[in-house]
Design brief:
Blueprint (H helix, E strand, L loop, with lengths): L1 E7 L8 E4 L12 E2 L8 E2 L1 E6 L5 H17 L18 H4 L3 E9 L2 E9 L4 E9 L5 E7 L3 E3 L4 H11 L6 H7 L3 H13 E4 L5 H11 L1 H14 L5 E8 L13 H7 L6 E10 L6 E5 L5 H19 L2 E4 L8 H12 L9 E5 L16 E6 L5 E5 L11 H6 L17
Parallel strand pairs: 5-16, 5-17, 11-15, 15-16
Antiparallel strand pairs: 1-2, 1-6, 3-4, 6-7, 7-8, 8-9, 9-10, 12-13, 13-14, 17-18
Pfam families: AAA_21
Protein name: ATPase AAA-type core domain-containing protein
GO molecular function, one term: ATP hydrolysis activity
Amino acid sequence: MLMEFSVENFLSIKERVTLSMIASKDTTHENNLIIGKDKSPNVLKAAAIYGANASGKTNVLQAFNFVSYFLNTSHEMQQGKKIGVEPFKLERAYIDKPSSFDMVFIAEGIKYAYGFSATDDKVVEEYLYFYPKGRQSIIFEREDTDNYKFTNDIERQTQIKDKFHSNNKLFISTLSLWEYEKAQIPFKWLDNNLKILISREKLEEYTVSLMKSDEAINKRVKGLLKSAVKDIEDITITEIDIDIKENPLLKYLNDEAKAKLFNNKGNKLVNVNTLHKMNDSEEFIEFDMIDESDGTQKLFGLLGFWVKALDEGLTLIVDELDARLHSHLTKFLVELFHDPNVNKNNAQLIFSTHDTNLLDQDLFRRDQIWFTEKKEDKSTDLYSLDDFPVRKDAAIEKGYLQGKYGAIPYIKGDFLWQ
């Protein structure tokens, strides 16, 4: 369960910004909260990020994506290989400064804090803390790239560092690879529980693979799609063996088309069909999923992630959730996370959107709504609706479109038409 995420000097983000999933003292919509145990705070089940085009919404989510990418590839980094981090580039002073990423989360009932800062050449700082009895305990701290501090299992961690580590790797990845348990639990959460959807590619492939491997997921995906798209009666999935090398035309397909047509091994043609009842008989007719609307195709692709997240208590991060979807469908997807009868495992949803129809206090608490805005120095600011004195009965969609909370496009009136 994610509590906070902070990022600094990354893409359009110059100064440190924090997306907090810790609930405010607002007493509305208790169903939208994961209720904290003992003295732990309540945590939000969902958060929506609004903002003008090019304001940095996607870059906030890309920061999650970079952390996930670096964690997954770090142990494979050869000495001297570039890390691939992209700092704020509109001021020279920031180009050579480290980019920083910090996260607070709950894994297996224990609170962890993990973060690092890195240039393109090396990891400059890194830390991992945990709170087994509510008090902070250091697993490791790393400063000036190679200066480490251990307070737990000092000999074991030192041995791993000296034998297997290098300055362009994340130490948490190295520890986890060599099965150091105190690092494995948080690493597995970061690796498995954060699901990030920035691109539409392979959505359908993922859903199909889940439906084929898990009958419970298969039934839920079908049920959700039938609930949302009234004309669809059923879905069928078939696979046909095919040798791609013997069909030269297939090499001209782009990656998105290949992901839709083939399984992840690339040796079977995957055919997803929807079943519709005919108007003039009791018979049914099949349509290829490609013949369905873009919105139906996207919804189908998302549903695998939705069911997986809700079943396993994952944190799902989605860019432009509303793209190609009607407002009612987007609301339907959000409400699944809010519904305590569906979301029994503390799953979370963080998404960016332009759909102002969702700006409704009947759907969201004020602390669930976030905005990105470009500042005077062209960097991204991130802030919450909860920072404003908004009445509980206020029409926040109207207020947003009127510019009361910022984060809307500024269109110059002195443009030239040539």
